[in-house]
């Protein structure tokens, strides 16, 4: 069980990329230095550690739910597969996604549970889930999602102010009663086969599709492409610290001020590579009907930043949040790969010069 295993520690001799540590309790208290730290992290790398977020108990229970679900027979899990049409909710089998433009398959399996389905349960909004998920909808999944939404909403309120947006602008883009792609995801990656130390992407390089990701992991393997370089570096997991990052919609809303950074998952380094790797994410995504465009009319800060953007294609796609999201999912499915152009059609904001 992911929650009960004692893992070897992250190897000392493997280079890691440091993240700023942001204290959630201080943010809630309006601490100015902490808010400044969050802004620095969000504009420079787009990733930070978050401590004192108060969700650790729910996270452990979610890992139990994940373990119960992944041990179901393969055929049972496949009844809930997300399919090839661009829906994210449901089960994703190992190999169902490509990790690069040559069509190399991923090795992770995951279960995505929609916020809308969790809140409307037992009535499905988008789809149904395996019995192990249903069994924990009220006791585990709803509490985890509720708390994660609260944390991400607090962060959105702070970004709203720092971007000079009228009060409630970002909240309007993430209305609680509008259906969205927001979801919880539990990921399992099998241990690295004995003796093989070569890096192979378990989950391909990507930027996140939505607004904010609230990630919990136990083992190394997550890497970021360090801004201004073409180098991948590990982010070291720290017990009790979540890893937060921004997704494409926040880059677009902010006219490029906030960073949605490229990242990927490879097998954990050193002795950790012999273990199953489990991770858990809550993704906050804008409401389905929200058009992803820079909020230049709402904020001078965004308008000024946007004057400096040279390649505007990503900012002017005219796509709604649900179109952006479905396009990215559909074009990374292995079954849909017709060549490098399919993979490229799955891309987010990462081709921008600022994200290279
Ligand atoms: O497993 C991880 O550490 C990261 C997962 C991730 O990037 C994702 O699911 O979008
Ligand atoms: Fe991600």
TrEMBL record:
GO terms for molecular function: metal ion binding; oxidoreductase activity. SUPFAM superfamilies: Clavaminate synthase-like. InterPro entries: DIOX_N, IPNS-like_FE2OG_OXY, IPNS-like_sf, Iron_ascorbate_oxido_reductase, Oxoglu/Fe-dep_dioxygenase_dom. Residues 171-192, 331-356 are annotated as: Disordered. Residues 180-286 form the Fe2OG dioxygenase domain. Residues 174-186 have a biased composition (Basic and acidic residues). Gene3D superfamilies: B-lactam Antibiotic, Isopenicillin N Synthase, Chain. It comes from the Eukaryota. PROSITE patterns: FE2OG_OXY. Keywords: Iron, Metal-binding, Oxidoreductase. Belongs to the iron/ascorbate-dependent oxidoreductase family. This is Fe2OG dioxygenase domain-containing protein. It comes from Ceriporiopsis subvermispora (strain B) (White-rot fungus).
């Amino acid at each position: 069980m992911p929650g009960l295993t004692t893992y070897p520690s992250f190897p000392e001799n493997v280079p890691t990329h440091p993240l700023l540590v942001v204290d959630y309790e201080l943010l809630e208290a309006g601490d100015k230095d902490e808010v400044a730290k969050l802004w620095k992290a969000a504009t420079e790398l787009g990733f930070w550690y978050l401590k004192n977020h108060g969700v650790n108990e729910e996270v452990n229970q979610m890992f139990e739910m994940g373990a119960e679900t992944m041990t179901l027979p393969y055929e049972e899990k496949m009844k809930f597969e997300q399919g090839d049409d661009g829906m994210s909710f449901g089960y994703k089998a190992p190999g169902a996604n490509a990790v690069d433009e040559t069509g190399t398959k991923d090795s992770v399996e995951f279960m995505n549970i929609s916020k809308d389905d969790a809140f409307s349960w037992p009535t499905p909004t988008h789809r149904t889930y395996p019995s192990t998920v249903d069994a924990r909808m009220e006791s585990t999944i709803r509490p985890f999602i509720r708390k994660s939404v609260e944390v991400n909403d607090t962060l959105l309120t702070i970004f709203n102010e720092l971007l000079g947006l009228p009060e409630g602008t970002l909240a309007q883009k993430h209305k609680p009663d509008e259906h969205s792609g927001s979801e919880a995801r539990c990921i399992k990656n099998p241990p690295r086969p004995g003796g093989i130390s070569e890096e192979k992407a378990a989950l391909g390089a990507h930027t996140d599709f939505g607004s904010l990701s609230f990630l919990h992991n136990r083992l190394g393997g997550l890497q970021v492409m360090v801004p201004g370089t073409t180098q991948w570096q590990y982010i070291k997991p720290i017990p009790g610290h979540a890893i937060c990052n921004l997704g494409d919609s926040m880059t677009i809303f902010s006219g490029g001020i906030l960073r949605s950074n490229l990242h990927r998952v490879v097998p954990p380094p050193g002795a950790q590579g012999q273990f199953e790797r489990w991770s858990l994410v809550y993704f906050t995504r804008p409401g389905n009907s929200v058009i992803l465009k820079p909020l230049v009319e709402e904020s001078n800060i965004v308008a000024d930043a946007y004057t400096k953007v040279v390649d505007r294609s990503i900012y002017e796609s005219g796509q709604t949040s649900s179109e952006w999201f479905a396009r990215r999912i559909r074009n990374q499915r292995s079954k849909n790969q017709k060549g490098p152009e399919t993979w490229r059609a799955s891309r987010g904001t990462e081709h921008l010069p600022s994200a290279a």
